Amino acid sequence: MASKPTISDVALRAGVSKGAVSFALNNRPGVSAGTRARILLAVDELGFTPSRAARALSSSRTFAFGLVLARRPEMLRADAFFPPFIAGVEQVIAPAGMSLMLRFVPDAAAEKVAYTELANGRVDGVIVTDIRRRDPRPALLTGLGLPAVTLNRPTKRLPIAAVCMDDAPGVLAAMEHLIGLGHRRIAHVGGPRRYLHVDSRRRQWATALAAAGLPPGPFLEADFTAAGGARATAQLLQAPPLPTAILYANDLMAAAGMAEVSRRGLRVPHDLSIIGFDDSELSAYLHPPLTTIRTDAFGWGQAAAKALLAQLAGEQVTDVHLPAGVFVLRESTASPP
Amino acid sequence: MASKPTISDVALRAGVSKGAVSFALNNRPGVSAGTRARILLAVDELGFTPSRAARALSSSRTFAFGLVLARRPEMLRADAFFPPFIAGVEQVIAPAGMSLMLRFVPDAAAEKVAYTELANGRVDGVIVTDIRRRDPRPALLTGLGLPAVTLNRPTKRLPIAAVCMDDAPGVLAAMEHLIGLGHRRIAHVGGPRRYLHVDSRRRQWATALAAAGLPPGPFLEADFTAAGGARATAQLLQAPPLPTAILYANDLMAAAGMAEVSRRGLRVPHDLSIIGFDDSELSAYLHPPLTTIRTDAFGWGQAAAKALLAQLAGEQVTDVHLPAGVFVLRESTASPP
DNA sequence: GGATCTTTCTAAACCGTTTTAGCTGATCCT
DNA sequence: AGGATCAGCTAAAACGGTTTAGAAAGATCC
After folding, report:
1. pLDDT for B25 beyond 50
2. B133 and B197 in contact (C-beta within 8 Å)?
3. Which of A303, B187, B190, B327 is packed most tightly, with the most Cβ within 10 A?
4. Which DSSP helix (H) or strand (E) runs through A243?
5. CA of A50 to C1' of C13 (A)
């Protein structure tokens, strides 16, 4: 009585066998309504909650999802995506009695170890983010037999479902907006090109440029940090021909870029237009408020969690397509000087 | 052979009993060097890794720590503390074979449920952040018998160790800097007052004001979001006497405040000095670069994880005191107009 | 009215570790 | 030489659930 009650205590109190209690608790047929009520009463009186460890051992399910992040700590310092993303995941899985197991690793080698450990009875499935070119993880995960969901689709055919958010419409709208304003030299500051979404945004940008009959603009590969954004901006601004607009792959780099522009005595948007990506919380409150492309990290987290949950429930899951990011017009863009 | 090898497979291959294998793997005495080598060889050949679930069940340890965050999703959107904090925790616990279990909950009621669930065989200990006034969690946790570490000390005497970072020196240095520049009306925009660290910073600010013989300045309670920071700033600026400097409880509010000041045609730092808190990644790259007080979230995470690990190892842990946040002078402060 | 199905429930096996109790044979001590 | 001690190992009992095989009791069928 002093220590935590077990299923045997419940069985004893309800005058049934352990098996009956297990059936009753898992809503399985084979228990009469009366007995079920008696069992639930005993559960309630004893304050019984099943031990996850025992459940995990006998049913070989862990009731946890895994998320492995391969990032250097400094890249996490101001990350605007993961906190809301994780919150979205949590909101969906917590009511289902599951929890999220997090792993931060510094590089790809550690990443592989982390997934292997997670596969070894720590989680029932994983959400794979930051898909890279020739990403080894889908193969690794199917090899490990670990159910998974990816954020965006890595390559054409894989037995892993993807939860996709198309960034083409957002980037296109942004580019059309700039081109409509009369911009002809539109630069792009992206993230590391190994990431698929970085490359995708870059392609949309290049396509829009070409479609408007404009010459290919300068592309700079930065690292998603404020420091990187400032550095890339400085580089774009150091020699003519100067771009009249810059599209960034996230708001953090855009904000830092905007500051860099100001520091050089140029004015946003008068001398240079700036567009970010993600619509982070601060962006609406910068000076000037940042025009950006909104992505719904929270909703993405929810969708990914739902897809993984459905997969574990045995449903045949296909790719999920979320509403594309929308272009949010604020005040960091104007006609070129 | 097809499925994952168990400890019995290893025992069979090495020609010993399961017990011997367990002893060898856990570096326990009672196994000769020769036998140990034979066992380790078998482990290697079979690629054996012990099942966490079975381990958890028989040793009643879960090899995971828990972290429960009671925040509304919008407060997480731009949070600069948790990503590096969690990264710090991870860096310490991963080599020890442990992982982090995360829970996001919307309010205090859900919080209690979350801790109770975690206590029930899901984690070996928790890190408690965002300590509030009359926080019910320390009592809850000691009641649940769940080892814990708090970030900063809630009240005087509790059997829970705290990992503390003193913000007094940083705030004091900031205030001395402002007062030295000649400021006499220094406002403070804090976070929700139920948080102990909010109250602590507010007290330091008030004390410094009093120590300099200045009248108590206006305090505004905001919510740590950019929107809240902008709103509070607007309120401070709407009626004279205007403050000549504002100290914010985080960089996000400070950044939004700075933009709000600019929007009103005032110039930072010429017309108004601004100081933030935390030194988030963007702050050094704002225009002007934000003067702030640096807190080491990553180091805090490491220290908290170490303390919890030590506690689980049976060590008598006392409070840990981390280096205080340092004042980082940049360009958002100047003499009052 | 007996054979056959269902339904409801029990007993026991099982999941893969850790841990305890106890069994060996060698060594030490007097 | 013979008992105590010890390291090195084995066998088996936990840990707390799930799951399977099968028993007991009613309901159904011809």
Report:
1. yes
2. no
3. B190
4. none
5. 20
Where does residue A265 fall: left (phi above 0), alpha (psi -120 to 50 degrees), or beta otherwise? left
Question: Dihedral of the CA atoms B21, B22, B24, B30 (nearest 10)?
Answer: -100
Complete DSSP assignment for A26-76: TT-SSS-HHHHHHHHHHHHHHT----HHHHHHHH---SEEEEEEE--HHHH
Q: Which residue is nearest to nucleotide D20 (CA to C1')?
A: A19
Residues 24-53 of B with CB under 7 A from strand C: 25-26, 48, 50-51, 53
B142 touches strand D (CB under 7 A): no
Predicted pLDDT of residue B1: 47
Joined together, the tokens standing for residue A82 give: 């993961």
Q: Model's pTM, two decimal places?
A: 0.91
Cβ-nearest to A52 among B100, B120, B298: B120
Beta-bridged to residue A100, according to DSSP, are A65, B102
Mutate to test the interface with B, among A104, A120, A274 (most CBs of B within 10 A): A104
Beta sheet of B273-275, edge-to-edge order: B219-221, B186-190, B245-248, B273-275
Provide φ and ψ at B149, rounded to 5°. Answer: -135, 135
Q: Which nucleotides of strand C lie within 7 A of protein CB?
A: 7-21
State the nearest residue by CA to the C1' of C14. A58
| A214-237 pLDDT, tens digit each | 999 899 999 999 999 999 999 999
Task: Give the distance, in angstroms, between the CA of residue B259 and the centroid of all CA atoms in the same chain.
Answer: 27
What is the CB neighbour count within 10 angstroms for residue A231? 20
Contacts of B192 (CB under 8 A, 6+ apart): B198, B221, B223, B224
Cβ neighbours of A82 in B, within 8 Å: 83
Q: Report yes or no: A162 and A320 within 8 Å, Cβ to Cβ.
A: yes
Worst-scoring range by mean pLDDT, A232-236, B37-41, B104-108, B332-336? Answer: B104-108
- Read off the DSSP letter of residue A94: G
Pairing of strands B64-70, B99-105: parallel
- The answer to whether B29 CB is within 7 Å of strand D is yes
User: Among partner residues B103, B259, B298, which is closest to A73 by beta-carbon distance?
Assistant: B298
- Give the pLDDT band of residue A1 (cuts 50, 70, 90): very low
